[in-house]
Amino acid sequence: MSNAIHILGAGMHPWGKWGEHFTRYGVHAARAALAEAEVDWRDVGFISGAATMRCGYPGYVAGATFAQALGWQGAQVNTSYAACASGAQALAAARAKIAAGECEVALVIGADTTPKGFLKPQAGERPDDPDWVRFRIGITNPTYFALYARRRMALYGDTSEDFAAVKVKNAAHGAKNTNARYRKTFTAEDVAQSPVVADPLRLMDVCATSDGGAALVVCSADYARAKGKQHTPRIAGISTATPTFASATVEMPDLATDSTAAASPHSFRATLPLAAFEQAGIGPEDVDVAEVYDLSTALELDWMEDLGLCARGEAAQWLRRGDTRIGGKLPVNPSGGLACFGEAVPAQAIAQVCELHWQLSERAGERQVEGARVGITANQGLFGHGSCVIVER
């Protein structure tokens, strides 16, 4: 029995700094997804929420929180937490329910309200909290983003200009996305004039924190057929892997969202997509469009190589040739990526799948990737959580 499930609808609440309760964004996204899917809320058998740790108890039990806000109707609920990979974990839970025959149609939701500035751990002494530990010893997010950028420069000869070019590209894509927080184009000079945050990365090389929400309506093949929507995009593979220790790499899943030495072919990020490719029965050469985790501009280049979309050390060359732009050989982050959205942590892995759904349904408007039939996402969260999703039509 195939574990592939169909996407009937996707919805988002535009990213921004709205200052509202996270539930508002999730409900907005859920209703948009249900409307696109043409599914009645009462027909949903499973609500899978991605948790947010910043929003109190309702965020810890996000699945139930969203079910209550939409109106109790008896469905089963689930909440998944994997930091930035929470949305993919929630999607994997929905796929498992459908594959087990326990429901026909599920709703996956993630939403967040974030503080001003960079993300930081909750207050108080928390020596068992890896976020608290790494901030205590100085490993803030921009710090290790910069270390990864420096490694690319040392290993492959990438330059600050290459990193700026990622921002310029993604900004051009995101300017056409009504859900993006930042819809402004930039030049390399704009990036170069922004303040240094952690050398070599400047402010415009690093993503912001945002409020926002995203949702998906997914279903079994039989349900899609009954609705006359058997040709909608399918979730063909999901990997939610964790690191393998005793390897040749230096791994830090307890201290950093980015947890391995990406230069090694045996690293966590390099092995992460393998299960998804195996489930889908395809390889990196079959991918037409990618939505990857661009917490910093340099990390987008790492992810291209980690997913096998290009050889080690070649991502910057692809970028310089225009291969990763819309209209290029393999567009990366046609949504605009986190560069244009910022982090709404439990929503972002879901938002990536929303973009692939719209791309493969040929509903992406001005940012449409022509002829796209296979898309891939990559996301990674604190404490060793990783996710990769493959969508096909």
Which short descriptors sum up this protein?
alpha/beta; Peroxisomal Thiolase, Chain A, domain 1; two-stranded antiparallel ribbon; 15 helices
Give a structural overview:
- With 393 residues, the protein is an alpha/beta fold.
- The chain has two domains: 5-117 and 211-234, Peroxisomal Thiolase, Chain A, domain 1, CATH 3.40.47; 130-205 and 235-388, 3-Layer(aba) Sandwich (Peroxisomal Thiolase, Chain A, domain 1).
- It is 36% helix and 18% strand.
- The protein has 15 helices and eleven strands.
- A nine-stranded mixed sheet has the order 3-2-4-7-1-8-11-10-9, sandwiched between helices. It has a two-stranded antiparallel ribbon with strand order 5-6.
- Strand 10 and strand 11 form a beta hairpin.
- The model is unreliable at 246-263 (pLDDT under 50).
Encode the helix/strand succession as letters: EHEHHEHEHHHHEEEHEHHEHHHHEE
Can you tell me the CATH architecture of the largest domain?
3-Layer(aba) Sandwich
Strand content: 15-25%
How many strands in all? 11
Mean pLDDT: 91
Within the CATH hierarchy, at the fold level, what is the topology of the largest domain? Peroxisomal Thiolase, Chain A, domain 1
Largest sheet geometry: 9 strands, mixed
At the fourth level of CATH, the homologous superfamily of the largest domain is: Thiolase/Chalcone synthase
**Tally the helices: what do you get?**
15
- How do the strands line up in the largest sheet? 3-2-4-7-1-8-11-10-9
Query: Any low-confidence stretches, pLDDT <50, length ≥5?
Result: 246-263
- Globally, the shape reads globular
Helix amount: 25-40%
Distance between the termini: 18 Å
CATH class of the largest domain: Alpha Beta
How many whole angstroms does the radius of gyration measure?
A: 19 Å
Q: Which structural class do the helices and strands define?
A: alpha/beta
Number of domains: 2
